[in-house]
Task: inverse folding
């Protein structure tokens, strides 16, 4: 099942959201407008709005209300990518130059801030005030996740728990909130809101684990962003943790590099090969699959519907995606 097939039934609503985002980032200022439009037009899967739309189908589906959360959620995601590329010093995103590379870090910081501000502004038009603390909490946790990653950067002695806590904050929560808010604005009952929120959390964990696997096995063409950069940047993800545990020689090599990157350069190709041979990809996929299964299980508690099967399909797409 491809993403396009899953999106098929939502096409016209996604296009409406897309138009709305385009209008909203058509900022008053020419540089902010150019930079925001640049990242928007570069593409992206728009998976967070899709989660909002599908979750909203469990209740009273009202696109006008859905827009006021789905647009902010995609904008929050976009803003975090603009900032993430500054932090990760990344030059390519969605197959195009990043804002920090096409303009510079300063423009990227303000563009990210501007997009964040737009997101909160649009949310104020919602008829559901309970969305605000939920959105604010997710934004706050994302910052903590990214800062935790900075703290853990270049440190080889990390536990799986630390990794999971980090990805929960930086990625899973926003996807969880996308599902939860779809249910809130369509006035689903509490048990449905609860199930969708947890569905989104588990799907989001699988999503980031897969992103981390793809960094070692994907190609730049598939991903629209360079592969193999996490380890070089000192970001130790689960596949690397696993390979280090299985291969002491690789562990020492990585540790030497992390302690002194300038003096002990790491060969990306060689490291990727070692990681692949260590069984790390399979182990990481198994971990992602555990989360996919938990996500799908959460759907069992809520009413059968065609939308439910779309959420299951997205969960399994996440476990097997290659972009
Ligand atoms: C990239 O997110 C950052 C992560 C949380 C892994 P996406 O893979 O959803 O990025 P786009 O929006 O499709 O470019
Ligand atoms: C996810 O982390 C970024 C955010 C949640 C902001 P990554 O650094 O892995 O994202 P990519 O790989 O650059 O898209
Ligand atoms: Mg990052
Ligand atoms: Mg990054
Ligand atoms: Mg990544």
Result:
């Amino acid at each position: 099942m491809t993403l396009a097939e899953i999106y098929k039934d939502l096409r016209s609503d996604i296009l409406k959201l897309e138009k709305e985002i385009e209008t909203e980032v058509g900022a008053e200022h020419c540089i902010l407008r150019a930079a925001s439009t640049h990242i928007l037009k570069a593409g992206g899967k728009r998976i967070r709005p899709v989660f909002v739309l599908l979750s909203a189908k469990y209740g009273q589906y009202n696109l006008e209300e859905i827009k006021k959360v789905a647009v902010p959620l995609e904008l929050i995601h976009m803003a975090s990518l603009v900032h993430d590329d500054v932090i990760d010093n990344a030059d390519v995103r969605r197959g195009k130059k990043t804002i920090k590379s096409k303009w510079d870090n300063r423009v990227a910081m303000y563009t990210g801030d501007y997009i964040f501000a737009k997101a909160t502004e649009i949310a104020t038009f919602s008829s559901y005030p309970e969305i605000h603390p939920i959105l604010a909490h997710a934004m706050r946790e994302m910052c903590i996740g990214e800062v935790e990653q900075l703290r853990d950067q270049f440190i080889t002695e990390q536990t799986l728990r630390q990794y999971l806590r980090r990805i929960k904050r930086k990625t899973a929560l926003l996807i969880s909130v996308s599902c939860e808010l779809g249910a809130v604005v369509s006035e689903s009952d509490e048990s449905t809101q609860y199930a969708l929120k947890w569905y989104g959390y588990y799907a989001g964990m699988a999503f980031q684990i897969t992103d981390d696997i793809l960094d070692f096995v994907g190609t730049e063409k598939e991903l629209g962003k360079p592969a193999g950069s996490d380890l070089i940047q000192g970001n130790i993800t689960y596949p690397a943790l696993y390979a280090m545990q299985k291969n002491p020689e690789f562990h020492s090599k990585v540790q030497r590099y992390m302690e002194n990157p300038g003096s002990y350069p790491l060969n990306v190709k060689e490291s990727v090969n070692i990681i692949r041979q260590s069984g790390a990809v399979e182990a990481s996929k198994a971990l992602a699959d555990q989360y996919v299964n938990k996500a799908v299980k959460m759907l069992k508690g809520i009413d059968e519907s065609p939308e439910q099967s779309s959420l299951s399909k997205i969960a399994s797409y996440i476990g097997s995606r290659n972009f």
